[in-house]
């Protein structure tokens, strides 16, 4: 469906246009070219380079491919990209986008990909955005056609996230008190601090409460209603076991001076990110390993 990949990975490219002065890596199969030297493929690999942005992508695709706007698979993993360029929205047939191992930080970058109606697979792990609260849920909610995220299938429970909607609405700190009374300006600061702390605790609690009113029992068959009830019971059991088993990690048994361990500096965030990048790279490399059997693995023996 996608054709043989045109592979420019591991070329130390600093710009997308740099591929025009390079020859693609040779694989098991060679992508077909027409008389003008353009590829009849819908897959481009630019992973493991030094790219900072996607400037010049469309011009490069036009020079490389017979049908540049029909690109379906783009691998930009393991570069230094910080922003998702709007040029990607021109690739209306893009289905698979690999961006893991980059430096994307903000959820607003993911919003730009809403314009891609066929995008069903994306990777963003190994970016700073992965550490943000609600990362996976936000991406899935923003891209409604996703089937796979970070090499993990999007489940029906994740897609139907509205069944766990908060029971308490978002507070409005600027709303007026009831009965038209005015607040005392001298107490506003301390009152808001106390209210915000209390509302923060209540909201966190509400997020873990399942709104059973979201299941319309009147419009459901009995077996559907029982299935929903079993799902809710399972979720509550998992949550209860997780909370009960949560214990602080013990110190290593060979630690003779625990006060030195407790007083030592935390592991730098950059080190954690580097380990995450290496782990993601290893996973990506292993997932691409293919074994082509050249000989029969089962040998027939004749019985005398």
UniProtKB/TrEMBL annotation:
Q: Where is the composition biased (Basic and acidic residues)?
A: 156-166
- Localization per Swiss-Prot or TrEMBL: Cytoplasm; Endomembrane system
Q: Does the keyword Disulfide bond apply?
A: no
- Return the InterPro entries for the record: LAMTOR1/MEH1, Leu-rich_rpt, LRR_dom_sf
Spell out the Polar residues composition-biased ranges.
181-191
Positions of region (Disordered): 155-193
GO CC annotations, alphabetized: late endosome membrane; membrane raft; Ragulator complex
- Taking the record's annotation, the residue ranges forming a coiled coil are none
UniProt entry keywords in alphabetical sequence: Cytoplasm, Leucine-rich repeat, Lipoprotein, Membrane, Myristate, Palmitate, Repeat
Biological process, per Gene Ontology: cellular response to amino acid stimulus; cholesterol homeostasis; endosomal transport; lysosome organization; positive regulation of MAPK cascade; positive regulation of TOR signaling; regulation of receptor recycling
Q: What is its main location?
A: cytoplasm
* Name of the protein: Leucine-rich repeat-containing protein 51
Organism, scientific name: Hemibagrus guttatus
